[in-house]
């Protein structure tokens, strides 16, 4: 079996360790990052080379992975002048790990097909820690054959990997996740604000209720940092704002009323204007605590 | 050791099996229920006798348990003409399992002390099934000595039993629970409404995301019935309305803004006017699905 050639575009908090796992698995890697110094650093940490553009990185790749910021970044590194589509080989697969719109996923699927290659949208969850430990959840959209072909490679950094349906379905699933998180975290924030104002021992409260009907991953993993007013970790409000904007646009398209999600997106906008764009999403509590009563 | 005498006031969905567990444990039971036929039925199912009034039930009791509907019912069976306080013996303990206000808990604590007896507020969670299986969570408020004295008896139907602080603290903890549930269930409902409108396989979506940051007891235990549009089970909207009204009044008192909880209470009011007072709280999805878009 000949060595697999892969490109990885976007060496951010997530992409950097993800590309690293592929390199460590013996895949011949070519990486690209907008800030070239970071790509150079990556080649000092891992075996592989870096390319001056997405097109150059993708030129000889069997698999091209992307993990960038948003729809605009994604269109630029794929459909732009120096983008991946300029060189993506016939039969190659483009795998997009960006949390983006379902629309751009369908666009890239169509563009890939047009040149005889394949596309998979594959947003992840599990955060920086999941990327470092190789324990990400990966929600895929695309056809079965493409999914099966890429699956063994995804397993180098993914744990729960699922094909959700045709192109765009990975993104739609990630949106469901973010909608559920928004209501959940606000409920937790209101509950904790109440517990503190009521003079309860908040730790004891959550020990007591976290096994029952109010229990959640967020309650188990965030109540302590919320009690400690610590938000310099986790999933940043700026990213949540981006994701919720995507959800709300798609909800208009598919006719879903999201009254509370919409309002929580506004709460996150307030947190941004409080200077909290980099705070964890659980900082909804800090916002509540600033409201004059 | 002489036999423990206990009274149980209120043989509803929860109280009926709870009193049954005490009878089966060998405690000499006297029960009271507003609808006398139900008390008569209870004495056919379990060893024990029934009394014509709360005062009569409590007359010779070491421990008096109450599990009724709301603050008004509770005041009536305790402070009313035929209420427990008429006969509650010096040294006896009054244990209230009603989900009620912290205010009425403090009132009953004061009234109990005045006649040399003791009080514990002890709202439960775990539902009808928890009451039947003896697996309830019990959140207690009161003093340590009273709690330790009652604990072995509570263990006949409770699993996770905790003393949360002074009188009223059990109720306040239950309120935190209900506030967390409200936001959580609306988030889940909005996520599921979106998933269905997006054409996703909703079962597969929840299998995929329930282990991560969006995961919750509600997601695991309610997604299937929500997908099936089944709400004839679980915790009724009428009861949730009552509980959230209590939360919102207490939040005004302790200065906690609960913007989303307040709005979800309004959503539940809408469900009541749709005829859904007996539906499970997860019927927030059905409300979303009725909104014209």
Automatic annotation (TrEMBL), chains A, B:
Domain (6-phosphogluconate dehydrogenase NADP-binding) ranges: 7-165
Top-level enzyme category: oxidoreductase
Domain (3-hydroxyisobutyrate dehydrogenase-like NAD-binding): residue spans on this chain: 168-287
Alphabetized InterPro entries for the sequence: 3-OH-isobutyrate_DH-rel_CS (IPR002204), 6-PGluconate_DH-like_C_sf (IPR008927), 6PGD_dom2 (IPR013328), 6PGDH_NADP-bd (IPR006115), HIBADH-like_NADP-bd (IPR029154), HIBADH-related (IPR015815), NAD(P)-bd_dom_sf (IPR036291)
Highest taxon, organism lineage: Bacteria
GO molecular function, one term: NAD binding
EC assignment: 1.1.1.31
Entry keyword set: NAD, Oxidoreductase
GO biological process, one term: organic acid catabolic process
Location of the active site: 174
Family membership noted in the UniProt record: Belongs to the HIBADH-related family.
PANTHER family xref list: 3-HYDROXYISOBUTYRATE DEHYDROGENASE-LIKE 1, MITOCHONDRIAL-RELATED
Protein name, as recorded: 3-hydroxyisobutyrate dehydrogenase
Provenance organism: Alcanivorax borkumensis (strain ATCC 700651 / DSM 11573 / NCIMB 13689 / SK2)
């Amino acid at each position: 079996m000949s060595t697999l050639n892969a490109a990885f575009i976007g060496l951010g908090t997530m992409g950097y360790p993800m590309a690293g796992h592929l390199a460590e698995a013996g895949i011949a890697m070519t990486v690209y990052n907008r800030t070239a110094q970071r790509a150079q650093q990556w080649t000092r940490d891992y075996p592989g080379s870096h390319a001056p553009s997405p097109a150059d990185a993708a030129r000889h790749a069997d698999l091209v992975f992307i993990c960038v910021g948003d729809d605009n970044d994604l269109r630029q590194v794929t459909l732009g002048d120096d983008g991946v589509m300029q060189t993506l080989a016939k039969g190659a697969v483009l795998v997009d790990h960006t949390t983006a719109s379902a629309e751009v996923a369908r666009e890239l699927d169509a563009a890939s097909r047009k040149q005889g290659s394949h596309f998979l949208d594959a947003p992840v969850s599990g955060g920086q820690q999941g990327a470092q430990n190789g324990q990400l959840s990966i929600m895929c959209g695309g056809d079965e054959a493409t999914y099966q072909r890429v699956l063994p490679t995804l397993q180098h950094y993914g744990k729960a990997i699922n094909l959700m349906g045709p192109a765009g379905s990975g993104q739609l699933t990630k949106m469901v996740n973010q909608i559920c998180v928004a209501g959940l975290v606000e409920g937790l924030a209101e509950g904790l604000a109440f517990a503190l104002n009521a003079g309860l021992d908040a730790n004891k409260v959550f020990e007591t209720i976290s096994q029952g009907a109010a229990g959640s991953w967020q309650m188990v993993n965030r109540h302590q940092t919320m009690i400690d007013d610590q938000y310099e970790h986790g999933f940043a409000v700026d990213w949540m704002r981006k994701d919720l904007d995507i959800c709300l646009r798609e909800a208009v398209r598919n006719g879903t009323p999201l009254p509370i999600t919409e309002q929580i997106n506004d709460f996150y906008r307030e947190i941004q204007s409080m200077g909290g764009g980099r705070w964890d999403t659980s900082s909804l509590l800090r916002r509540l605590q600033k409201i004059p009563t």
